[in-house]
Design a protein that fits this description.
heterodimer; A: mainly beta; Ubiquitin-like (UB roll); five-stranded mixed beta sheet; 37% strand; B: 615 residues; alpha+beta; Aldehyde Ferredoxin Oxidoreductase,  A, domain 1; seven-stranded mixed beta sheet; six-stranded mixed beta sheet; 23 helices
Chain lengths: 79, 615
């Protein structure tokens, strides 16, 4: 990893995993926002419900830091 | 409904609904057009039925003075998608206060019965008294309005919900059906009887693809009254869908809530079942009586694992594009669809699967089939079974019933069939009564006598203020997991302002997935009312009516003897906090005490004077 890059762990859940992965280490430029990861992975925005960084609820505009674990989950809307 | 105004807020009296009142003891009936008193009457469902129940002084559910009110909502049978709901309201045999009085309760279901009921010209039936012999009620369309007849039903006794429907279907074409199962017939020993509602899929395939008004023992009340089924026969009277309603439907299907429910092949999340995948990363899927163990056991019932062995078919109700449920069938060796096993919805799957230690999809499916066919609420029965299993885990030397333990499929099957046949009142009467008998109430997962849905109480303190079952009458189950809200003030807002509006769907005739996040006080609903009935109404007026109805439900709980101390989570939650749940703690005694103070501060001032005098 160069100094201008960060390594993060991305964890996908439910239908967001289809044709993708469950867990993957990925490298991004420093100051990357969550939305960049979402775009790059082509996560359908209408299905994305929950963003968690290191166990805490987060937003698509949040900036990722080296070593972060980013969890992306579908919506939860009733049973 | 007869509508002679465009303004239902200022002139509800110019809107009348067609009501049939039947005295089951004498067979006397009266059909009348009743002018609405207020907007709640116009909207219908529990908004109307609770006003009637509030006028009665009822000390025990099984008494002749306790009526069952069967009604629809204004948009049932309309051109609006999901407009299929039928409501059953009464004082409940299972939900009751510590003072021993039954709570007013309603239960809602889809299927096509409600639309046929409406198209036959009827908006409401009130059943008083009790028939001497089993009967079913035939509703047909006469030249001057609905015709109602009471018919002998001895031949239906002992049949499952599905078999009752299919037996009646042989005699009635162009009809749909509501029926109880053996559980409702055994009302003395089973307080969790449901009412099954026939679907187009069921009648077409002959498979038990019913929908249910499951909660609160409304099927047991029907059984007590000796009414085992209703038939509604009418031509379909669907209005042409206007451009305005088409636009609403597009918004419903593409909206946030419904998008998740769409089939995976249409880019959706695959139905309510997908809740497993969202909650498991937090170890928030109920396991073994609501005690997740921090392991991956729930993943065995993830769709991606089940579909390796079984055929999964996305399914929808009549004319609904949401596709919220899934049919599970055997997969033939050539990959084609084999025998139908059961309908997988999140709640029954969890509460008759993972939460009782069953991680095999076929076994869970068979238990769902069993509950559906006996006509029992999968939530109340599943949770009462999980209580018994938890008791047996603690008392291996003196277990309850047959000594069943978590995951013991054969013995759990015996417990559920025993309850359905009325042979195991300990299970059939629910977890509150069973835990009071054993003296171990801490891990009985009910609130106010009604078992919790398949969302951990640790994730939803809002359960306490739900007026008709956890997740269906207080939409706060996603506030922690989905929205990450863990401060008291956010929860106060959620409970007292936003999420109580979920009950509006149980007034107007629509399913919650129409717009689960917003409720019915929306432009979408306004557009449907304008298109179908030429009614002009402001979303704020609808919201106000929903709030009044919710508050009436809360006031009725106090009338029936509930005290504030009963608005609490099961004690195990705070006496033995589960360290495996990976979410902020919103259920500590301190959090709950502050929340309760602030919630009551909002609600209490609105409850004064809300109840009418009893007759």
């Amino acid at each position: 990893m160069s100094k201008s890059n960060i390594d993060i762990t991305v964890s996908l859940h439910g239908v967001l995993r289809i044709n993708k992965f469950k867990l993957e280490q990925r490298t991004y430029p420093a100051n990357t926002r969550v939305e960049k990861v979402i775009d790059e992975l082509q996560i359908p925005v209408k299905l994305l419900g929950i963003i968690i960084i290191n166990g805490v609820h987060a937003n698509a505009t949040d900036i990722l830091n080296n070593g972060d674990t980013l969890m992306l989950l579908p919506l939860l809307e009733g049973g | 409904m007869k509508i002679e105004t465009t303004d239902p807020v200022s002139h509800p009296e110019l809107i009348s609904y067609c009501r049939c009142t039947i005295n089951l003891k004498t067979g006397a009936q009266k059909i009348e057009h009743v002018p609405c008193k207020n907007l709640e009457d116009v909207l219908g469902g529990f908004g109307r039925s609770f006003q009637m129940l509030a006028e009665l002084d009822i000390d025990t559910a099984y008494c002749e003075e306790n009526p069952i009110i069967i009604n629809t909502g204004l948009l049932t049978g309309s051109s609006a998608m999901t407009g299929l709901r039928t409501y059953f309201s009464s004082y409940s045999p299972i939900k009751g206060s510590k003072a021993g009085k039954p709570a007013a309760m309603w239960s809602a279901g889809s299927g096509k019965f409600g639309a046929k009921f409406k198209w036959a010209g009827l908006d409401e039936i009130i059943l008083h008294g009790r028939a001497d012999k089993p009967l079913y009620i035939e509703i047909t369309e006469g030249s001057d309005g609905p015709l109602i007849q009471l018919k002998p039903a001895e031949n239906l006794i002992g049949l499952s919900t599905h078999d009752k429907v299919m037996t009646l279907y042989k005699d009635y074409d162009n009809a749909h059906f509501a029926a109880i199962g053996q559980a409702g017939e055994n009302w003395e020993n089973n307080y969790a009887g449901s009412v099954a509602l026939s679907t187009v899929n069921q009648l077409k395939t002959g498979e038990d693809k019913l929908r249910f008004a499951g909660r609160g023992g409304m099927g047991s009340m029907m059984g007590y009254k000796n009414v085992v089924a209703l038939v509604a026969q009418s031509e379909d009277k669907l209005k042409p869908i206007t451009e305005a309603v088409k636009n609403v439907h597009t918004q419903v299907i593409k909206g946030g809530g419904a998008a998740r429910l769409q089939p995976i092949k249409r880019g959706g999340g695959g139905g309510t079942w997908a809740a497993y995948d969202v909650m498991q990363p937090f170890h928030a899927v109920p396991v073994n009586n609501y005690r997740p163990q921090g392991n991956d056991l729930p993943e065995k019932l993830f769709r991606e694992n089940v579909e390796k062995e079984f055929d999964i078919q996305s399914a929808a109700c009549f004319r609904c594009g949401i596709t919220c449920h899934n049919y599970i069938s055997e997969k033939n060796p050539d990959g084609s669809r084999g025998d139908f096993i059961a309908k997988f919805d999140y709640e029954p799957l969890n509460l008759l699967g993972t939460n009782i230690g069953i991680h095999d999809a076929r076994q869970a499916g068979k238990l769902i089939y069993l509950c559906d066919n006996y006509g029992m609420d999968a939530i109340s029965i599943g949770v009462t079974v999980s209580y018994a299993l938890a008791y047996n885990e603690r008392h291996p030397d003196k277990p309850l019933f047959n000594g069943a333990h978590f995951g013991d499929y054969e013995k759990i099957y015996e417990l559920i069939s025993g309850a359905g046949e009325g042979k195991l009142p300990g299970i059939g009467k629910g977890s509150m009564r069973l835990s009071e008998q054993t003296g171990e109430t801490d891990y009985a997962y009910h609130i106010k006598g009604l078992e919790l849905a398949a969302y951990l109480p640790e994730t939803n303190p809002g359960y306490c203020w739900a007026i008709a079952g956890g997740h269906m009458s207080m939409g706060s189950y996603g506030t922690l997991i989905r929205d990450g809200k863990s401060d008291v003030d956010s929860w106060v807002d959620v409970i007292t302002q936003d999420k109580l509006h979920i009950v509006g769907f149980d007034m107007i005739g629509l399913c919650k997935f129409f717009d689960i996040t917003q409720g019915i006080g929306t432009q979408m609903v306004v557009d449907c009312l304008k298109s179908d009935f030429n009614l002009e109404i402001d979303p704020a007026a609808i919201k106000a009516a929903v709030r009044r109805s919710f508050l009436l439900g809360l006031a009725l709980e106090f009338r029936q003897g509930y005290t504030k101390s009963e608005y609490c989570l099961p004690a195990e939650v705070y006496k033995d906090p589960n360290p495996n749940i990976k979410l902020p703690n919103v259920s500590s005694p301190e959090f709950m005490a502050e929340l309760a103070d602030k919630v009551w501060e909002v609600f209490e001032k609105e409850l004064n004077g809300i109840l009418p005098n009893c007759k």
